[in-house]
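Write out this protein's structure.
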Amino acid sequence: MVAGRRELLGFAAVGLLAYAVDLALFTWLRGPAGHDPLTAKTLSFLAGCTVAYLGNALGTYRHARVRGLRPYAVFFAVNVAGALVQLLCLTVSHYGLGLTSQRADTVSGAGIGMALATALRFWGTRTLVFRVIGREQGRVGSWTG
């Protein structure tokens, strides 16, 4: 159980760092750099994904020893799926349920959507990207123990 807690805390710490990079870069690209919102968000999302991948590969899942571009591509796809979960929550709330206030959008997209997306990202990262056959006790464990 200690290994699972360590994995979750490492994943969360890396995620917070990646979020900070994404937010800071988006703010700078949108403001002083003068880029349009979609270009700024695309670039900041790519930077955040790269920071998250490197943090997980070199930290949280360093025992997995993944190589090549395939793990990064799968990691990127998992993160895109997480972003789509957030957009789906926002879409259902705003357009499906008619909850159109800024508070409702924040709760559905950045609250509920982020929680569900984080769960998906955690599962996808540990299961699809940094999967290790025959993981040992004390290292990153599988979902079944």
